[in-house]
Specification:
Its EC number is 1.14.13.149. It is a single chain. The protein is mainly α. The protein has a single domain, classed as Ferritin, core subunit, four-helix bundle (Ferritin), CATH 1.20.1260. Helix 1 packs parallel to helix 3, helix 2 packs antiparallel against helix 3 (53-78) and helix 6 (110-131) packs antiparallel against helix 10. It has helices at residues 4-12, 23-44, 53-78, 85-90, 101-104, 110-131, 137-165, 169-182, 194-199, 210-224, 246-260. It has eleven helices and no strands. It is globular.
Protein backbone atom coordinates (compact mmCIF):
# COMPACT_ATOMS: atom_id res chain seq x y z
CA UNK A 1 0.00 0.00 0.00
CA UNK A 2 1.33 3.42 -0.94
CA UNK A 3 1.94 6.06 1.70
CA UNK A 4 2.63 9.79 1.60
CA UNK A 5 6.21 8.95 2.56
CA UNK A 6 6.59 6.82 -0.57
CA UNK A 7 5.30 9.65 -2.73
CA UNK A 8 7.90 11.97 -1.17
CA UNK A 9 10.68 9.45 -1.69
CA UNK A 10 9.70 9.07 -5.33
CA UNK A 11 9.84 12.83 -5.80
CA UNK A 12 13.23 13.11 -4.11
CA UNK A 13 14.84 10.91 -6.78
CA UNK A 14 14.64 13.70 -9.35
CA UNK A 15 17.72 15.85 -9.60
CA UNK A 16 19.44 13.88 -6.87
CA UNK A 17 22.84 14.43 -8.47
CA UNK A 18 22.30 18.20 -8.66
CA UNK A 19 22.63 18.26 -12.47
CA UNK A 20 20.19 20.28 -14.55
CA UNK A 21 18.38 18.65 -17.42
CA UNK A 22 19.19 19.70 -20.98
CA UNK A 23 16.39 21.13 -23.12
CA UNK A 24 15.76 17.79 -24.84
CA UNK A 25 15.91 15.76 -21.63
CA UNK A 26 13.53 18.24 -19.99
CA UNK A 27 11.08 17.84 -22.87
CA UNK A 28 11.24 14.06 -22.57
CA UNK A 29 10.73 14.28 -18.81
CA UNK A 30 7.63 16.37 -19.51
CA UNK A 31 6.28 13.59 -21.72
CA UNK A 32 6.64 11.09 -18.92
CA UNK A 33 5.61 13.40 -16.11
CA UNK A 34 2.50 14.65 -17.87
CA UNK A 35 1.37 11.11 -18.72
CA UNK A 36 1.62 10.12 -15.06
CA UNK A 37 0.11 13.36 -13.74
CA UNK A 38 -2.99 13.25 -15.94
CA UNK A 39 -3.62 9.55 -15.31
CA UNK A 40 -3.27 10.17 -11.57
CA UNK A 41 -5.82 12.98 -11.73
CA UNK A 42 -8.21 10.76 -13.66
CA UNK A 43 -8.00 7.89 -11.17
CA UNK A 44 -8.41 10.23 -8.21
CA UNK A 45 -11.92 11.01 -9.45
CA UNK A 46 -12.94 7.43 -8.60
CA UNK A 47 -12.36 7.88 -4.86
CA UNK A 48 -15.70 7.28 -3.09
CA UNK A 49 -17.24 6.30 -6.45
CA UNK A 50 -15.64 2.92 -7.20
CA UNK A 51 -17.87 -0.17 -7.39
CA UNK A 52 -16.59 -1.49 -4.05
CA UNK A 53 -14.74 -0.09 -1.05
CA UNK A 54 -11.58 -2.05 -1.77
CA UNK A 55 -11.40 -0.41 -5.18
CA UNK A 56 -11.61 3.05 -3.62
CA UNK A 57 -8.41 2.18 -1.78
CA UNK A 58 -6.74 0.43 -4.71
CA UNK A 59 -7.38 3.22 -7.22
CA UNK A 60 -6.33 5.86 -4.69
CA UNK A 61 -3.07 4.00 -4.10
CA UNK A 62 -2.39 3.71 -7.83
CA UNK A 63 -3.16 7.41 -8.27
CA UNK A 64 -0.69 8.30 -5.49
CA UNK A 65 2.01 6.12 -7.04
CA UNK A 66 1.51 7.89 -10.37
CA UNK A 67 1.58 11.28 -8.65
CA UNK A 68 4.95 10.36 -7.19
CA UNK A 69 6.25 9.44 -10.63
CA UNK A 70 4.89 12.70 -12.04
CA UNK A 71 6.54 14.77 -9.31
CA UNK A 72 9.89 13.13 -9.98
CA UNK A 73 9.80 13.67 -13.72
CA UNK A 74 8.41 17.21 -13.49
CA UNK A 75 10.90 18.23 -10.85
CA UNK A 76 13.71 17.03 -13.09
CA UNK A 77 12.23 18.76 -16.15
CA UNK A 78 12.08 22.00 -14.16
CA UNK A 79 15.81 21.98 -13.49
CA UNK A 80 16.28 23.12 -17.10
CA UNK A 81 14.62 26.50 -16.62
CA UNK A 82 14.26 26.82 -12.84
CA UNK A 83 10.59 25.92 -12.63
CA UNK A 84 9.20 23.83 -9.79
CA UNK A 85 7.00 20.77 -10.16
CA UNK A 86 4.09 22.95 -8.99
CA UNK A 87 4.86 25.55 -11.67
CA UNK A 88 4.71 22.85 -14.31
CA UNK A 89 1.57 21.20 -12.97
CA UNK A 90 -0.51 24.29 -12.20
CA UNK A 91 0.73 27.16 -14.35
CA UNK A 92 1.14 25.72 -17.82
CA UNK A 93 -1.63 26.16 -20.36
CA UNK A 94 -3.24 23.22 -22.14
CA UNK A 95 -1.05 23.50 -25.26
CA UNK A 96 2.09 23.28 -23.10
CA UNK A 97 1.25 19.79 -21.80
CA UNK A 98 2.83 16.80 -23.52
CA UNK A 99 0.67 13.86 -22.40
CA UNK A 100 -0.45 11.24 -24.92
CA UNK A 101 -4.15 11.04 -25.72
CA UNK A 102 -4.59 7.63 -24.07
CA UNK A 103 -4.10 9.20 -20.64
CA UNK A 104 -6.63 11.92 -21.46
CA UNK A 105 -9.48 9.54 -22.22
CA UNK A 106 -12.46 10.07 -19.90
CA UNK A 107 -13.09 7.68 -17.03
CA UNK A 108 -16.46 6.63 -18.45
CA UNK A 109 -17.82 3.63 -16.59
CA UNK A 110 -15.58 1.31 -14.58
CA UNK A 111 -14.92 -0.93 -17.59
CA UNK A 112 -13.63 2.01 -19.61
CA UNK A 113 -11.30 3.04 -16.79
CA UNK A 114 -9.98 -0.52 -16.59
CA UNK A 115 -9.42 -0.73 -20.37
CA UNK A 116 -7.50 2.54 -20.26
CA UNK A 117 -5.58 1.37 -17.20
CA UNK A 118 -4.67 -1.93 -18.83
CA UNK A 119 -3.17 -0.23 -21.88
CA UNK A 120 -1.46 2.45 -19.78
CA UNK A 121 0.06 0.15 -17.17
CA UNK A 122 1.32 -2.46 -19.65
CA UNK A 123 2.94 0.35 -21.65
CA UNK A 124 4.43 2.05 -18.58
CA UNK A 125 5.84 -1.21 -17.25
CA UNK A 126 7.68 -1.86 -20.52
CA UNK A 127 8.81 1.77 -20.71
CA UNK A 128 10.20 1.97 -17.19
CA UNK A 129 11.83 -1.45 -17.50
CA UNK A 130 13.75 -0.21 -20.54
CA UNK A 131 14.39 3.28 -19.13
CA UNK A 132 16.40 1.80 -16.26
CA UNK A 133 19.17 1.47 -18.84
CA UNK A 134 19.11 5.17 -19.75
CA UNK A 135 22.43 6.97 -19.98
CA UNK A 136 20.77 9.76 -17.99
CA UNK A 137 21.24 8.68 -14.37
CA UNK A 138 18.26 10.62 -13.05
CA UNK A 139 15.82 9.18 -15.58
CA UNK A 140 17.20 5.71 -14.87
CA UNK A 141 16.76 6.17 -11.11
CA UNK A 142 13.17 7.38 -11.41
CA UNK A 143 12.35 4.45 -13.69
CA UNK A 144 13.89 1.94 -11.27
CA UNK A 145 11.60 3.19 -8.51
CA UNK A 146 8.52 3.50 -10.69
CA UNK A 147 8.67 0.09 -12.37
CA UNK A 148 8.15 -1.73 -9.07
CA UNK A 149 4.92 0.15 -8.48
CA UNK A 150 3.67 -0.06 -12.06
CA UNK A 151 4.05 -3.84 -11.95
CA UNK A 152 1.24 -3.84 -9.36
CA UNK A 153 -0.81 -1.42 -11.47
CA UNK A 154 -0.50 -3.79 -14.42
CA UNK A 155 -1.51 -6.85 -12.40
CA UNK A 156 -4.51 -5.00 -10.96
CA UNK A 157 -5.70 -4.00 -14.44
CA UNK A 158 -5.20 -7.52 -15.81
CA UNK A 159 -7.24 -9.09 -13.02
CA UNK A 160 -10.10 -6.64 -13.50
CA UNK A 161 -10.03 -7.13 -17.27
CA UNK A 162 -10.45 -10.88 -16.79
CA UNK A 163 -13.10 -10.42 -14.11
CA UNK A 164 -15.22 -8.10 -16.25
CA UNK A 165 -14.74 -9.93 -19.55
CA UNK A 166 -15.59 -13.32 -18.04
CA UNK A 167 -18.27 -12.08 -15.65
CA UNK A 168 -21.89 -11.35 -16.40
CA UNK A 169 -23.26 -10.67 -19.85
CA UNK A 170 -23.50 -6.99 -18.91
CA UNK A 171 -19.94 -6.71 -17.58
CA UNK A 172 -18.61 -8.43 -20.72
CA UNK A 173 -20.63 -6.14 -22.98
CA UNK A 174 -19.20 -3.11 -21.23
CA UNK A 175 -15.63 -4.44 -21.34
CA UNK A 176 -15.86 -5.16 -25.07
CA UNK A 177 -17.20 -1.67 -25.70
CA UNK A 178 -14.52 -0.10 -23.49
CA UNK A 179 -11.68 -1.80 -25.32
CA UNK A 180 -13.10 -0.59 -28.62
CA UNK A 181 -13.35 2.97 -27.27
CA UNK A 182 -9.83 3.09 -25.82
CA UNK A 183 -7.72 1.23 -28.38
CA UNK A 184 -7.62 3.87 -31.15
CA UNK A 185 -5.43 5.97 -28.82
CA UNK A 186 -2.82 3.28 -28.10
CA UNK A 187 -0.83 3.78 -31.31
CA UNK A 188 0.45 7.23 -30.31
CA UNK A 189 2.48 5.64 -27.49
CA UNK A 190 4.77 3.89 -29.98
CA UNK A 191 5.53 6.72 -32.41
CA UNK A 192 9.20 7.66 -32.79
CA UNK A 193 9.40 11.44 -32.63
CA UNK A 194 12.50 13.46 -33.69
CA UNK A 195 13.18 14.16 -29.99
CA UNK A 196 14.00 10.48 -29.48
CA UNK A 197 16.64 10.60 -32.22
CA UNK A 198 18.30 13.57 -30.53
CA UNK A 199 18.29 11.92 -27.11
CA UNK A 200 19.85 8.70 -28.37
CA UNK A 201 20.45 6.29 -25.44
CA UNK A 202 19.10 8.69 -22.82
CA UNK A 203 15.54 7.84 -23.94
CA UNK A 204 13.65 4.70 -24.88
CA UNK A 205 12.65 4.42 -28.53
CA UNK A 206 8.84 4.07 -28.39
CA UNK A 207 8.59 1.68 -31.35
CA UNK A 208 10.73 -0.88 -29.49
CA UNK A 209 8.08 -1.11 -26.79
CA UNK A 210 5.29 -2.24 -29.09
CA UNK A 211 6.32 -5.92 -29.51
CA UNK A 212 6.43 -6.67 -25.76
CA UNK A 213 3.28 -4.60 -25.22
CA UNK A 214 1.46 -6.52 -27.95
CA UNK A 215 2.62 -9.86 -26.52
CA UNK A 216 1.25 -9.09 -23.04
CA UNK A 217 -2.03 -7.75 -24.41
CA UNK A 218 -2.44 -10.76 -26.70
CA UNK A 219 -2.01 -13.14 -23.75
CA UNK A 220 -4.46 -11.22 -21.55
CA UNK A 221 -7.06 -10.92 -24.31
CA UNK A 222 -6.76 -14.61 -25.16
CA UNK A 223 -7.51 -15.53 -21.56
CA UNK A 224 -10.34 -12.98 -21.43
CA UNK A 225 -11.71 -14.16 -24.80
CA UNK A 226 -11.47 -10.64 -26.17
CA UNK A 227 -10.32 -9.55 -29.61
CA UNK A 228 -7.58 -6.99 -30.09
CA UNK A 229 -9.22 -4.13 -32.02
CA UNK A 230 -7.93 -3.79 -35.57
CA UNK A 231 -9.48 -0.47 -36.54
CA UNK A 232 -7.59 2.72 -37.45
CA UNK A 233 -5.53 4.54 -34.86
CA UNK A 234 -6.16 8.16 -33.93
CA UNK A 235 -3.78 10.73 -35.39
CA UNK A 236 -3.55 12.25 -31.89
CA UNK A 237 -0.85 14.82 -31.15
CA UNK A 238 -0.35 15.04 -27.41
CA UNK A 239 3.44 15.13 -27.63
CA UNK A 240 3.12 18.37 -29.62
CA UNK A 241 0.48 20.10 -27.49
CA UNK A 242 -2.59 19.12 -29.51
CA UNK A 243 -5.01 17.46 -27.09
CA UNK A 244 -8.23 15.53 -26.71
CA UNK A 245 -11.17 17.83 -25.82
CA UNK A 246 -11.43 16.50 -22.26
CA UNK A 247 -8.00 17.71 -21.18
CA UNK A 248 -9.00 21.35 -20.84
CA UNK A 249 -11.80 20.49 -18.39
CA UNK A 250 -9.49 18.24 -16.38
CA UNK A 251 -6.82 20.95 -16.13
CA UNK A 252 -9.38 23.55 -15.09
CA UNK A 253 -10.38 21.37 -12.15
CA UNK A 254 -6.81 20.41 -11.26
CA UNK A 255 -5.41 23.94 -11.43
CA UNK A 256 -8.23 26.06 -10.04
CA UNK A 257 -7.13 26.18 -6.39
CA UNK A 258 -3.52 27.13 -7.17
CA UNK A 259 -4.63 29.82 -9.60
CA UNK A 260 -7.29 31.33 -7.34
CA UNK A 261 -4.93 31.44 -4.36
CA UNK A 262 -1.40 31.81 -5.77
CA UNK A 263 1.33 31.26 -3.22
CA UNK A 264 -1.08 30.00 -0.58
CA UNK A 265 0.23 27.54 2.01
CA UNK A 266 -1.45 25.53 4.76
Amino acid sequence: MVTVERVELSAELAGGEGRAATADVAEYALWLGDDALILSQQLGAWIARAPELEEDVALANIALDLLGHARSFLRYAGTYDDRTEDDLAYWREEAEFRCAWLFQQPNGDFAQTIARQLAASVYLFELYTALQGSSDETLAAIAAKAVKEVEYHRDHAVQWTLRLARGTDESRRRMVRAVGDVWPYVGELFRDEPLIDRLEDAAVRPSTLQPPFDAVIAAVFAEAELEVPSGPMSSAGGRHGSHFPTLGYLLAEMQVLARQHPGATW
